[in-house]
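[retry 2/3] Subtilisin-like serine protease: previous attempt timed out, resubmitting with same input.
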Amino acid sequence: MSRLRSLSLPTALAIGFGSVLTAPVASATPATVECDATSTPYNYVVLYQPYTSQATVDAELAAKCGSRIAYYPEIGVAVASSRNADFADRIGSYRAYSGSREVADPTTSAAATARATARAEIETEETTQVVTTADLSEAQWDMRMIKAPQANKINEGSRSVTVGVLDSGIEPTHPALVHALDPAASVGCNTGAPDPDPAAWAPTTSDHGTHVAGTIAGKDPDRGFTGVAPGVRLASVKVVNDDGYIFPEAAVCGFMWAAEQGFEVTNNSYYVDPGMFYCPNQPGDSAAYEAVRRAVAYSQRQGVLNVAAAGNSGFDLTDPPATDPNRQHPVDSSCAILPKSLDGVVTVSAVGYEGTKSSYSNYGLRQVDVTAPGGDTAQLPPGATTGCTLSTVFDGQYGTKCGTSMASPHAAGVAALIASRNPHLPPQAVSALLRAKADRVPCGDAEACTGPAAYNSFYGHGLVDALAAVK
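[retry 2/3] Subtilisin-like serine protease: success.
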C-alpha cells in the first residue's frame, strides 16, 4: 500500500530538540518570567524526543509559562495548557501548536472559516432522517451490498475483538448498542488526557459517533437491525468536542488510548481540525502533524489497525487545492489530511446504492485503499426517499446519514471480522486481507477514475466483503 510518505521534522527542529534537552532548562530562559495569569488558557501539543523524562518536560513547560495536562513518553508528545499568547513562540513554533487558539483568534481568517464550515468531517453529510419503520432490515441495503447478513450466519465477530470508535461518543443506552459497548474501555479525550468518566465519553451535541457505532456492531432483533460485526466489542473514545472540532491533542490521546487498551481496530470518521491539511514543513503545522503521526505509528506498532474516512470534499487527494479550504495557508505535496493520509491507515471512499462512487467522496490513486457504502441522495433504492445508510441515532432511535464517515465503519466492521477469524494477526496483515478479499470495482465510464478494476482511484482495491472476511 502506497501513501503520502511520512516526513521527518525539519533539520532545524531536530537540532532544536537536542539543544532543548541537553542544556539546563534555566539557561534557556530568564531567571524570572512574566506569565499571563488572566487570559483564557489554550491546549497545545508539544514535541520532545521520545522517552524524555517527565521532570524535564514539566520543568521546560513551567519555564515557558505552561503546565502539563498529559505526557506520552513513548512518542515524546506532551499536551500542555498556557494562557500566554506567545507560548508556542517560547517553546518553538516547530514544536508546539494549538488548534483551539487558532480557532479562537479573531485576527485569523481560519477562525471565521472554521466556524462557518461546522467542521468534524460532516460538512456534506445529510441531516439525520429518523426512520420509524417497525422492521428495519429491508432498509439495510448497505449491509446486503457487502454481504453482511450471510457473513453473520457464519461469524458475528468475537468478543475478544474491540473496535475503538474515535468520534463524538456512543449513546450507552441505545438498545442496539448496549450489548457491544464496553464502558471500561471508553474514555473522553478532548482535554488531551484520557478521562474514564462516562460523562466524558458519552455523546452530547452529536449522534455522529452513535451512527458509526451501529454500523460496526449494532444489533436489535426487535427492530431487525444488525451491523457488520455484532459480536465484537465497542469502545467510545470521544475526540469530537461540543463545537464539532477534533483538535490534535484529542486525536493523539485517542490513538494512544487504543494502543494502551490493545484495540484491534479503530474507526476514524473525521479529519483533524481546524485545518483540512497539515504541512510538516510549516511552523505550527509541523508540531501537529508530527504529534498525530507519532501516535498513529505507535498504535500500529502495538497492534491496532486504524481505518479512516476519505473525506467529503469530492476532490482528488493526489491533486489537492493550492490553499487549505479551511484556513488561508498554502498546500503542497508534503501536506496531508490527518489521519487518513498517514502510513498504514486504511482509507475508505464511499459508494451509493448503485455501487458507484458517491458524488461527495474524495478519491485518489494510491490514496484510497477500499470502498464501502456511504450513501448518495442521487442513488435511491426502489421506493425509498433517501439513499443514505441506516444506523443508530440519539434516543434509541434509527436514522440515515450520508458520507465517507458512514463508509469507513463498514470497512472497520469487516476488518473486525477478519481479526475475529484470525486472532493475533498484526494490523498490516489484517489490512492486506481486507484489500485482498474486497470485490473489485471497475472505473466504468467515469472519466476522473483512473486505474484497473484491481486497484483504481475511485474504489481502491474494491468494495469490502464481509462474507469473504469470515471464510
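[retry 2/3] Subtilisin-like serine protease: The chain has two domains: 11-117, 129-470.
[retry 2/3] clearing retry counter.
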